[in-house]
Design brief:
Blueprint lengths: L4 E7 L2 E7 L8 E2 L11 H13 L8 E8 L5 E10 L10 E2 L3 E7 H5 L10 H10 L2 E8 L2 E5 L1
Parallel strand pairs: 1-5, 4-8
Antiparallel strand pairs: 1-2, 2-3, 2-7, 4-5, 6-7, 8-9
């Protein structure tokens, strides 16, 4: 249904985030991800994107959902969101420059701090729900508010 994924990789109390050098979401920290390729399911696209952008092979997701919003044409658009947990023995030197931007492990407290202006829009609203418990969620962004079902 949607064309893109955003994926959050968690290790202990940190998340691996990407500060993109290109639009969209240029210059702010966000999960990794990208366009789902023809013939891929959203789950397959998410696994591929995590590996391509980080070099990390993740297993099944811990939590996932969709974030939707209305476009200027009153159509519904959205993105698939995933949360993966990796073993705390996994080490990866960061910050690390990639073809997409800069990867770095950021503390969850830093990411969710209400004064943090460097995080992609809506992440601070839906990420806490993904971190709460395993499951599938639906997030609908309307009139500046995020409605959650799941």
């Amino acid at each position: 249904m949607f064309k893109y994924t955003v994926c959050f990789v968690k290790k202990e109390n940190k998340m691996l985030l990407l500060n993109r050098e290109k639009a969209p979401i240029m210059g702010v920290w966000n999960g990794v991800g990208g366009k789902i390729e023809k013939g891929e399911s959203p789950d397959e696209g998410a696994l591929r994107e995590v590996f391509e952008e980080t070099g990390i092979r993740v297993q099944g997701y811990f939590s996932k959902g969709t974030v939707t919003w209305e476009t200027s044409n009153d159509e519904l658009d959205g993105i698939y969101v995933y949360l993966y947990e990796v073993d705390n023995v996994l080490t990866d030197e960061t910050p690390k420059k990639t073809r997409e931007g800069i990867l770095d492990w950021k503390s969850i407290d830093w990411i969710l701090n209400p004064h943090n202006l460097g995080i992609a829009e809506m992440v601070s609203q839906y990420l806490p729900v993904l971190l709460e418990a395993e499951g599938n969620y639906s997030f609908n962004y309307k009139d500046g508010q995020l409605e959650i079902t799941g």
